[in-house]
Amino acid sequence: MKQQRLLLPYVTSKGWLYAAALLAIALGNIIQSLYPRVLGEFTDKLQSRSLTPEIIAQSALLLAGIAVLFTCLAGSGQYLVMRLGREFERLTRKQLFRHFTRLSEAYYASHGVGHMLSYVLSDVKSVREAISSCFSQTANAVILLISALIMMKVSGLPLGLITLCVSPLLLIPVLVVYFGPRIRKRSREVQNDLAAMTESAEEQIGGMRVTQKFSVEPMMEARFGSHVDEVYSSQLSLVKMSSLFQALIPFLGSVSLVLTLVAGGYQALTGAITIGMFVSLTLYMRLIINPLQMIGNVINTMQRSRASLERLQELLSTRPDIRNAADPLPFPAEAGIVIKGLTYSYPGAAQPALQDIELQIRQGWTTGLIGRTGSGKTTLAKLLLRMMEAPEGAILIDGLDIRGIDVHSLRDSIAYVPQDGFLFSTTLRDNIAFAKRDADQQEVEEASRYAGIYENILEFKDGFSTKLGERGVTLSGGQRQRTSLARGLIKQAPLLILDDSVSAVDAVTESAIVASIRQVRRNKTTLIIAHRISALKHADEIIVLDEGRIVQRGTHESLLQEQGLYAELASLQQGGMGHGRTGA
Ligand SMILES: Nc1ncnc2c1ncn2[C@@H]1O[C@H](COP(=O)(O)OP(=O)(O)OP(=O)(O)O)[C@@H](O)[C@H]1O
């Protein structure tokens, strides 16, 4: 799998801005590295008693100038780098969301919402830290080190002395090589555990009402608690490694200072260097050590960010399972469907969900699909929507292989109404006009009348402007279903699939809805999936599925004449179980 590169293209595209930031930081640090020299010369003049009030004023002005220039230059470099980091965060979050919209049903079945959130929140933030604060701190340290070394040489300090004093700092790269990969590995474990914990939090909080109703709070606490413990232990293991690393770097800095004191002091005693030179040497060493100490922090953050970057790159490299063919065709003029020898198994399933399906959903007809729970009805609907991919040549729409049809055009031409349609936290109007944003009020009202929800909506104080969701009205199961049905009907799509879409309404409402759907879908292709015979008995053809296979087909009347599952379901439902889920 080719890895999608995330960072390099971004940094390259912003190359000029990064170069400008680097320049500002470099100039700021070069200017700052002048101040030990000013103080060294000042000390020498003080010692040789050649100090005058003018020299004092000049030196003070010089130091103030250095401070102002450093603040302006380093400050603007820092601002630019931080801004570039935030821009990366903004673009990557959008890119991730775009990628999420392309991932398939199978991906979402194996990755929870919390897991996806952890990419958008913590991984992106962690990479942003690397390209903002780490960038400026590294630039600071490297430039300051180089300019301080040059200034020490220019100030006349002996090369041997300089080399001896900075030698312990040369061990820093060795520490980086040893600790870097270890910190990265542990960081990756932390990120994975955090993702699992977010996923668990999302699920446990989402299911809190069920938890309370079943009074199983201790069990759920233990479930979430175990994820929290895992995060704690992986973080602890990371903290151990990174603390050791971060403690060793200042230690090397202190060794450098000790050497400076001993070797510099000895040379000043013997007269090899002046006292002013000794003062500037110690100041230079302090100047270098401060940012180098921060390098420990930077490298820690960088390793964490690298682990996050790897996770993000892996995610962005996941190719969507459902992709358009090289030359995708638009949805054909007619929505007649032929299914030939379709067998479909979910990944890892022992049994196929559908087997040897031969079926025709005729253009302009209403086809009914009935069967016990788990018989494969929804699987068939999802294959028609290409939420999963059917084998080549198994599903033809108006003679075209479904795999050759543009995914967007296909889904745009099908109105799919599931049993438990998800409604968004917006107004009822927005939910109904979800897939038809330009629908006028009349269309919205018409669709809600057909779906049998119009009267209910008018009863709300704000009518169609009623807000749903956390800060709005909570609809009953049946109201939710009918709103979702209105959302499907308003599309007036060439193919309508109702997947148990009126299962939560009473028999009277159901028969009114079925009658209006028949009216609005006259001569349009419609597939009604249902458990209840009453929902599909008017269909032009009814298909009976059992354990993934078609076991009967015909009209309501012909199927009632046959010995078989349909007649069995009919007698059960007439016997008073009509509103339950048969075979469940
Ligand atoms: N994402 C999935 N991964 C694995 N197996 C699945 C998945 N979705 C459904 N199945 C299995 O496929 C079979 C058919 O399921 P499907 O949802 O199509 O049945 P159904 O007839 O629509 O049932 P119901 O009437 O209860 O909605 C079942 O055995 C189910 O467990």
Describe this structure in words.
This protein is of the alpha/beta class and 584 residues long. It has two domains: 311 residues, ABC transporter type 1, transmembrane domain (ABC transporter transmembrane region fold, Up-down Bundle), CATH 1.20.1560; 127 residues, P-loop containing nucleotide triphosphate hydrolases (Rossmann fold, 3-Layer(aba) Sandwich), CATH 3.40.50.300. It is 63% helix and 9% strand. It has 21 helices and ten strands. The strands form two sheets. A six-stranded mixed beta sheet has the order 6-7-8-3-9-10, with helices on both faces. Strand 7, helix 18 and strand 8 form a beta-alpha-beta unit. Helix 2 crosses helix 6 and helix 15 packs across helix 17. It is elongated and about 120 Å long. The C terminus is likely disordered. InterPro entries: AAA+_ATPase (IPR003593), ABC1_TM_dom (IPR011527), ABC1_TM_sf (IPR036640), ABC_transporter-like_ATP-bd (IPR003439), P-loop_NTPase (IPR027417), Type_1_exporter (IPR039421). Keywords: ATP-binding, Cell membrane, Membrane, Nucleotide-binding, Transmembrane, Transmembrane helix, Transport. One of its GO terms (molecular function) is ATP binding. One of its GO terms (cellular component) is plasma membrane. It is found in: Cell membrane.
What small molecules does this complex bind? Answer: adenosine-5'-triphosphate
In round numbers, the mean pLDDT is: 89
User: CA-to-CA gap between the ends?
Assistant: 42 Å
Beta strand count: 10
Query: What best-fitting shape do the alpha-carbon axes yield?
Result: elongated
Q: Name the beta content range.
A: 5-15%
What is the radius of gyration computed over CA atoms, rounded to a whole number of angstroms?
36 Å
CATH superfamily of the largest domain: ABC transporter type 1, transmembrane domain
Subcellular location: Cell membrane
Transmembrane segments: 16-35, 55-81, 130-151, 157-179, 244-263, 269-289
Keywords: ATP-binding, Cell membrane, Membrane, Nucleotide-binding, Transmembrane, Transmembrane helix, Transport
Pfam families: ABC_membrane, ABC_tran
